Amino acid sequence: MRIVLCADDYGLAEGVSRGILALGRAGRLSATGAMVTTDRWKRDAAPLRELRLGLALGLHLNLTTGRAVSPVPELAPSGDLPALKRLMALAFSGRLPEACVRAEIHRQLDRFEREIGNAPDFVDGHQHVHVLPTVRSALLSVLRERYAGRALLVRDPADRADRILRRGGPVAKALFVGTLARGFAEAVREAGFRANDSFAGFSPFDEKASFGQEFQRFLRAPGELHLIMCHPGFPDPELAALDPVVGRRRQEFDALMRRPDLPALLWPGWPRSKVTRPPCKAAA
């Protein structure tokens, strides 16, 4: 069995970026998704570029935390992005204009390309926002416009119910996200891109529970392209001000750094597929 292990939230806070860099340098990750909306993105992008040949780098599309790249009417008129519940309410009520979402996605991709020097290897969403109504159609439209014909993967956070039940853990959360993402993988493939065919990593983020045991559950019932999300890092005040998952990130870091068989589990072909692609010029 081989897995694609992706660390989310690179660039969210100094401790998160530092932890992901350490795991990447140790060969204990397949990929990381970057939040390019933060003030520290340009600073944190420089060391990330050094890992391009061994680590897949993607955009972790952010529409719910901190500030938008620039004010967007109906989405972030003051510059502050809405909380997840607010974004979901706008999306499911049809009050989220696709043009506004497209504009923000373009700007985040521009920021990624400008600092990394290449198109992303994959795209996913912070809090899985990329599968919401309007957001999914805006995202796939933008990706077709910018990256048609490229070997880009778009994360599908859904999985079959039988696989979710076999893994256990926060089953209700995994099933709920799977419901939100219904039909997403098919839409991704119809747009000409790849999607994973199984997905794990849902966690209650309980600091009293063993992440090592939880990770063992994530390995159950894999598909051919089994993608596992994780959230490692080092706690710091910057992180505590932005995200409720703080202490648990250090536990994930420690477990991933210490697990002896982890490098052998990682699928080596997928991260390196980006090497054959030409650089993508960032939009002005």
Automatic annotation (TrEMBL):
The keyword Ribonucleoprotein does not apply. CDD domains: YdjC_like_3. One of its GO terms (molecular function) is hydrolase activity. The keyword Glycosyltransferase does not apply. Keywords: Carbohydrate metabolism, Hydrolase, Magnesium, Metal-binding. It holds the Pfam family YdjC. Transmembrane segments: none annotated. Its cofactor is Mg(2+). GO terms for biological process: carbohydrate metabolic process. SUPFAM superfamilies: Glycoside hydrolase/deacetylase. InterPro entries: Glyco_hydro/deAcase_b/a-brl, YdjC-like. PANTHER family: CARBOHYDRATE DEACETYLASE, YDJC DEACETYLASE FAMILY MEMBER. This is ChbG/HpnK family deacetylase.
